[in-house]
Amino acid sequence: MLTLRTLFTSASSHIIGASVLLIFAGSAAAQQPQVLAPVNVEGRPAGEEIIGPYNQPRWSARGRFSADTDVYVLPPWSFYLDLDYHGTFPRVGKSDHLFTQEFELGLPYRFQLAFELNQELQDGRGQIPFVTIEGRWALANWGKIPLNPTLLVEYDIGTGKQYPVEPGQNAEQESGDEGAPVAVGDAVRQQTRKDIPDAYELRLLLGEEIGRSIEFATNIFYDQDLSGDREREMGFSTATSYAIRGEALKMGVETGYRNVSQPGARSKAKNIFELGPSFTVKPSPHTRIDLAPLFGVTSDSPHLDFFVIFSVDFGTGAAAEVESPATQGGRH
Predict the structure, then answer these.
(1) What is the pLDDT of residues 225-239, one digit of tens each?
(2) How many Cα atoms occupy the beta-carbon half-sphere of 74 within 13 Å?
(3) Predicted structure pTM score
(4) Burial (CB count within 10 angstroms: exposed 0-12, middle 13-18, buried 19+), residue 146
(5) DSSP letters along 224-242, please?
(6) Which of 75, 182, 300, 325 sits at 20 to 30 Å (Cα–Cα) from 9?
């Protein structure tokens, strides 16, 4: 029988190998003689030039618009590395901490690929719960279709174990019924853990500029587990950002809603709604930090979901087209 250590070691080897291949692919692509020359448009904030073959504003030329909302696609051969922290603090019970390394590569014809490696720490237990492969495609060049629709498909490969203490569900009973986990001190018996199932997610990404300095994005998603309890999630997220100094300094508001249910119990679905502020700063031309504390509004919601994202840009073109950091900022 495979032990958790064996599973963890095997998954880690394959994941690291895939990560190295994707890094080399992105690095090689970034060295291609493609330069995303900016197009000067009078009245646009500093760092918000129109760039690339898709004629997109710079704020849309990254995989992540905000902490929990995506937008459009990267320009061809652009390569991004995101280092994410997502902390879930439920109303009752233990917190969950998810660390994600995401590698994003823009491709021609408005395609984009991404790979995510996730590491989880919960109640003193660490594991790689799942890895993610993502693809997206924008329907047209920026501005050709209202809200610039983009289709995203994501597949999660379960590599870890589901514990009785799950984010936002820590108040649930952990003993008594047949098959329920049996507490032994601070540990839980090995046989009570279930494999994390594979899952797929379909998402519609929308984004648009409002006036001169306001940017808006929303995602509508459907997520389905393929085995186990076959849990289903569907909902939306929104993010609005005000460009104080172009890409160098921004503030905004984010919201998110999820309906979580299982077959045969749709009427008992959990309704999770969160909202909170968001902050963005660029400490250097090729790095970016996003921070967003989202507070639970409904009784099913966790008390707090806290996001911190550090992004590094390896290939969007010449340095001259990158916006100045906040300390040098201002508007054109």
Answers:
(1) 999 889 999 999 999
(2) 26
(3) 0.76
(4) exposed
(5) EESSTT--EEEEEEEEEEE
(6) 182
